[in-house]
Design brief:
single chain; mainly beta; five-stranded antiparallel sheet; five-stranded mixed sheet; 34 strands; about 50% strand; disordered N terminus
């Protein structure tokens, strides 16, 4: 890994390079975790880009998630998962032979791991607290609701919700098809899935009311709520979930990337969104501006040479982008409220 400082470009806080193609980023507290496709995980100082530690997940990596206090990390991959401890760098690798797509922390003491057709809930040291019954197919995404008291599990045909220590789901939200990604509103009011059939399916948790947003040009695998829970970014669209929700409304659309590859809302609920594209462009948006059906243009564009693999925010003023060629770059924004 190498780091180069940029003293002349005030928009660039730091540049780093890793020896692999990044596939995921995650920030908690002062740490940035980077997952490489071949299975190397880097733990960086989020402020400077300096490397603090590395560890390996045999068989490759698909994702990485830091605990809220940044004292532990969970990495997932095609053949298992690994748990890392900041205190002494100890890494425990679990080569299960099962596809582990993702991990999600409920709090500092519990992490959910997608392990084949089940979800495992573990302590930071890997002790199993409970597990779900097998789903119809491989678990593709996980999300916690109700302040970590309920776990939503996506697999083919449905999103199933489990309470603590429940083998069987306490609530099932069916929709025939392959669910690729989950987004849960911070309010707990909505559960959304991005799907293989180029649609978004939405459930209202209060009464299981549902609707489908279809007509996307390709499968929907990137979607995220902002801090308020009123806005959902899904590939090239932004939906308004305030009031009664998006039923009967049209989204705002983002005009920039031919193919979008990453999305990340700026913390703070100001309606600012970052997106990345296959052309290497990172765009910054006032994503809640305009009216429904508006076609928005970027507030700022940061050009690059290779595909943007992942985006994340290290606080409201530092945007971190990872590129397929191994470059990691942090861009500093001058204000918490403007772009």
């Amino acid at each position: 890994m190498s780091i180069t400082a940029s003293d002349t470009d005030l928009a660039t806080a730091w540049d780093a390079a890793v020896d692999d193609a990044p596939v995921a980023l995650n920030v908690r507290q002062d740490l940035l975790a980077v997952a490489g496709a071949a299975g190397t995980l880097w733990i960086l100082d989020a402020t400077t880009g300096a490397c603090i530690d590395t560890f390996e997940l045999p068989g490759g990596a698909l994702g990485v998630a830091l605990a809220p206090d940044a004292r532990h990390a969970a990495a997932t991959g095609p053949t298992g998962y690994a748990l890392w401890r900041r205190e002494d760098g100890r890494t425990t690798v679990h080569e299960t032979g099962a596809w582990s797509s993702t991990a999600a922390w409920a709090d500092n003491e519990r992490v959910a791991i997608a392990a084949g057709r089940r979800a495992l809930v573990l302590t930071p040291d890997g002790e199993e607290r409970w597990a779900t019954e097998p789903a119809a197919s491989t678990v593709t995404d996980l999300a916690w609701l109700r302040q970590g008291r309920r776990l939503a599990v996506a697999a083919y045909g449905a999103v199933r919700c489990h309470e603590r220590h429940t083998l069987k789901p306490v609530m099932t939200y069916p929709y025939i098809g392959s669910h690729l990604a989950l987004a849960v509103a911070p309010t707990g009011r909505w559960i959304c899935s991005g799907n293989q059939d180029a649609s978004i399916h939405i459930w209202r948790t209060r009464d299981a009311g549902e609707l489908t947003m279809s007509g996307y040009p390709e499968k929907v695998s990137r979607l995220a709520f902002d801090d308020t829970g009123f806005w959902l970014a899904a590939d090239v669209t932004v939906w308004d979930f305030s009031g009664k929700g998006p039923a009967g409304t049209a989204p705002r659309s983002l005009r920039c990337h031919e193919t979008i590859t990453a999305l990340a809302w700026r913390p703070g609920g100001g309606g600012h969104l970052a997106s990345g594209g296959a052309d290497g462009t990172v765009a910054l948006w006032r994503a809640t501006a305009g009216r429904p059906e508006s076609r928005l243009s970027p507030a700022r564009i940061l050009d690059g040479d290779t595909t943007v693999a992942a985006l994340t925010w290290a606080g409201p003023e530092l945007l971190v982008s990872a590129y397929r060629d191994g470059r990691i770059r942090a861009h500093r924004l001058p204000s918490r409220t403007t772009l």
